[in-house]
Design brief:
alpha+beta, five-stranded mixed sheet, 3 helices
Amino acid sequence: MGRYGFAVGLLLAIGLVTVANCAPEATVTASQSQIPPLAPGMARVWFLRGWDAPSGQNFVFAADTAVYANGAPVGTLRVGTSFFRDFPPGSYEFAVQPFGLPTSQATTLQLADGTQTHLEAQWVSSWQFGYPQAGFSFAPNTFAIFAMAPQVAQAYLPTLAYLGPR
């Protein structure tokens, strides 16, 4: 048992090191001092895309999804990135390029002067939007954008590569 116990322990240690090396590394590229202050009469919206779970659909996982405000493009998000855009106060509908099956999912916000809002683009299963479950070869998944709690976003932002204002 001693020889086999050592071999099992060695394989377990190698496996743990391998898994640890697969974890995404945080790539913080900007300090708070590099982020310009919000101009008077504007509202800031942060756009984030975390580390999507691998799906077996590499074209979806690797996709840079476009972000839209009231139908106009405001930037793109790849895995592990963030950027912000300043908007005049008003009502905005935010959406992302779906990839895979299209949905009517959007997040509508009323932006007020001096506020900061955080939106996260997420890769989601399209069955959540009423499509039947299908195999991965059918590309049953899509992107959606959701509002984040400020406390969660502030903890998450330092783990993402900052792309700068767009």
